[in-house]
Amino acid sequence: MGATKLTRHIRASRPAVYRALLDAEAVRQWMVPEGMTSRIHAFDPRQGGEFRISLTYDLPTTAGKTDARTDTFHGRFSSLVPDTEVVQTVEFETTDPALQGEMTITYSLADGEEGGTIVTGRHDDTPPGLSLEDNEIGWSMSMAKLARLLEP
User: Fold this and answer.
1) CB-CB contact of 106 with 90 (8 Å)
2) Which residues, listed in sequence order, are joined to residue 80 by a DSSP beta bridge?
3) pTM summary value
4) What are the boundaries of each domain within the chain?
5) HSE-CB for 103 with a 13 A CA cutoff
6) At what angle do helices 132-150 and 14-22 cross, to 10 degrees?
7) Per the record, a Pfam family (predicted)?
8) What value, to the nearest 5°, has the Cα angle with vertex 30 and ends 69 and 41?
9) How many CB atoms lie within 10 A of CB 152?
10) With respect to CATH, is domain 2-32+77-150 assigned 3.30.2290.10?
11) Tens-of-pLDDT digits for all 152 residues of the chain?
12) Which of 70, 107, 120, 131 could, after both became Cys, cross-link 86 (CB 3.0–4.6 A)?
């Protein structure tokens, strides 16, 4: 099991970033790499609340984890500390044993020295079939979208 970590400065307040981590429409917009479309099936943003999301490649491919074009995953909000941290437990919906298993995703928010928010995201216990490099690239794209969504 592997891990990836990413830090990004976003020129928005911690409360604004925290809200965007827990708002289904915001998540649909930002938590999706370029070249994919997001669909929120369920989203209950409270501690213990569950979610289910599908990311579908825009162009035909065989790279999907759930089917040829789609990555579907479900999980729950394990811990919520207002304006400070969101912890999610996530699992791909797949028949591939190399992609199965529960991952933990932690978003930590801190004040930036020059204003804004430092967002540190960490994916822990990623399954062995998930490329850490690809995960980091996809996550970088998503964090850039989060910044575009929130920054003036």
Assistant:
1) no
2) 86
3) 0.93
4) 2-32+77-150
5) 26
6) 120
7) AHSA1
8) 55
9) 4
10) no
11) 789 999 999 999 999 999 999 999 999 999 998 999 999 999 999 999 999 999 999 988 877 888 889 999 999 999 999 999 999 999 999 999 999 999 999 999 999 988 999 999 999 999 999 999 989 998 999 999 999 999 98
12) 107
pLDDT digits (tens, 9 = 90+) for 24-56: 999 999 999 899 999 999 999 999 999 999 999
Q: What are 51's two structure tokens? A: 């979610």
Half-sphere exposure of 31 (CA within 13 A, CB side): 21
- Amino acid symbol at 2: G
Task: For the beta carbon of residue 151, count every other beta carbon within 10 angstroms.
Answer: 12
Share in percent of the chain as helix, strand, coil (round to 5): 25, 45, 30
